[in-house]
């Protein structure tokens, strides 16, 4: 069995929700944890000091984008992504699989891996499971993901089965390459990915292969890809139930309070999404009463903060009226302040969820939060 990087601290008496600690090369991480996304080596509109101030211990970056720009040659001269972006905390990098497969007609699966054309200049590239491990080793990722085949909602079972089969094959190749890197001194951890789309038997087969591979952590892939909420919840619960308790569990691409709380309830430890900063740049913010758009006329004379229950510096110092003004005049500061608040809000939500789990009152906490929270236009 691989050396454990996860210490389970407490499991809620009424759910699968749990708290724990990840031990990684750049420090420990309390779980459950929401990871902000820094696609190009930066969380958009925030500085590293902002991230430290909020309290983040781990962020996510993107292998595909960093491979294309600035390129591994540049980052290698810095000894990895941490020094390049001046971030002292942990970094998880995704494999680039989602980005490559979203290119649709610009990519093709070949025996070596996947061939694709750059969205930047149209140049051709090939990413193999081994090359993806090597790129992430150069990035010095604390957690790196295997290359997988991403599939969308509502495809035929035959296509889903083929994608899961290729993902399993690529896991074996990635695992071998990662073990070689570790033997040469690389300290980062490989996470395998469960696929299988929305077919329970395929999910079970994929989970079996992933468990057998015995990687330090396990990710649940292929969720939040356009399926109805009820389907997401059903397949999240089913897949999570298949996974060993001693491994950290990661669901990729969820970033709203409802989805995060559902994931925590099912024993998920890690999640990430571009959503909170993306909507922040578009003047949309979270509050305890729900999310809302700053541009609405009702905020023109509103002296209240975004959320009167939030203690972030944005809510302590700025009014909805001022933030609406910044958005309407297209000031960059609006993106900065709204993104900061949204990340603080989710970080604090997860922190409160951890406290509720420790007190065995997670369901009450979730019910209380969602009874007030609603999505607003």
Can you describe this structure?
This protein is an alpha/beta fold and 377 residues long. The chain folds into 2 domains: 6-273, TIM Barrel, CATH 3.20.20.105; 281-375, no CATH class. It contains 15 helices and 17 strands. Strand 8 (113-117) and strand 9 (124-127) form a beta hairpin. Helix 10 runs parallel beside helix 14 and helix 14 (332-358) packs antiparallel against helix 15 (362-372). It is globular, with a radius of gyration of 20 Å.
| Tally of DSSP β-strands | 17
- What summary fits the major beta sheet? 8 strands, parallel
CATH domain class name of the largest domain? Alpha Beta
The total count of helices amounts to: 15
Structural class: alpha/beta
The number of distinct structural domains comes to: 2
Helix percent band: 40-55%
The backbone outline, from C-alpha atoms, is globular
Low-confidence stretches: none
| Structural Rg | 20 Å
Distance between the termini: 49 Å
**Under the CATH scheme, which architecture of the largest domain would be assigned?**
Alpha-Beta Barrel
Query: In what range is the share of β-strand residues?
Result: 15-25%
CATH-defined topology of the largest domain: TIM Barrel
Strand order of the largest sheet: 4-14-13-12-11-10-6-5
CATH superfamily of the largest domain: Queuine tRNA-ribosyltransferase-like
The residue-averaged pLDDT reads 95
């Amino acid at each position: 069995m691989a050396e454990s990087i996860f210490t389970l601290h407490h499991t809620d008496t009424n759910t699968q929700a749990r708290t724990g600690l990840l031990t990684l090369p750049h420090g420990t991480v309390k779980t459950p944890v929401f990871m902000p996304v820094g696609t190009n080596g930066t969380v958009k509109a925030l500085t590293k000091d902002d991230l430290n101030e909020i309290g983040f211990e781990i962020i996510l970056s993107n292998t595909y984008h960093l491979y294309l720009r600035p390129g591994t040659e540049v980052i290698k001269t810095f000894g990895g992504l941490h020094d390049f972006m001046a971030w002292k905390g942990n970094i998880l990098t995704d494999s680039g699989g989602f980005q490559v497969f979203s290119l649709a007609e610009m990519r093709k699966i070949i025996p070596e891996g996947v061939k694709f054309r750059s969205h930047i200049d149209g140049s051709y590239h090939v990413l193999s499971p081994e090359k993806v491990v090597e790129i992430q080793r150069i990035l010095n990722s604390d957690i790196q993901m295997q290359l997988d085949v991403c599939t969308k909602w509502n495809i035929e079972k035959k296509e889903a089965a083929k994608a899961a089969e290729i993902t399993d094959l690529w896991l074996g190749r990635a695992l071998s390459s990662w073990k070689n890197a570790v033997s040469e001194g690389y300290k980062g951890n490989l996470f395998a990915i469960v696929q299988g789309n929305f077919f329970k038997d395929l999910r079970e087969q994929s989970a079996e292969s992933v468990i057998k591979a015995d990687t330090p952590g396990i990710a649940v892939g292929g969720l939040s890809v356009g399926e109805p909420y009820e389907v997401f919840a059903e397949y999240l619960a089913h897949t999570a139930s298949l996974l060993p308790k001693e491994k950290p569990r990661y669901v990729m691409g969820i970033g709203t309070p409802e989805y995060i709380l559902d994931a925590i309830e099912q024993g998920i430890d890690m999640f990430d999404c571009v959503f909170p900063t993306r909507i922040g740049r578009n003047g949309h913010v979270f509050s305890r009463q729900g999310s809302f758009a700053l541009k609405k006329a009702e905020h023109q004379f509103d002296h209240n903060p975004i959320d009167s229950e939030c203690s972030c510096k944005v809510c302590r110092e700025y009014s909805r009226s001022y933030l609406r003004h910044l958005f309407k005049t297209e000031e960059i500061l609006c993106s900065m302040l709204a993104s900061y608040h949204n990340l603080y809000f989710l970080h604090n939500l997860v922190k409160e969820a951890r406290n509720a789990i420790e007190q065995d009152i997670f369901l009450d906490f979730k019910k209380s939060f969602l009874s007030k929270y609603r999505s607003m236009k």
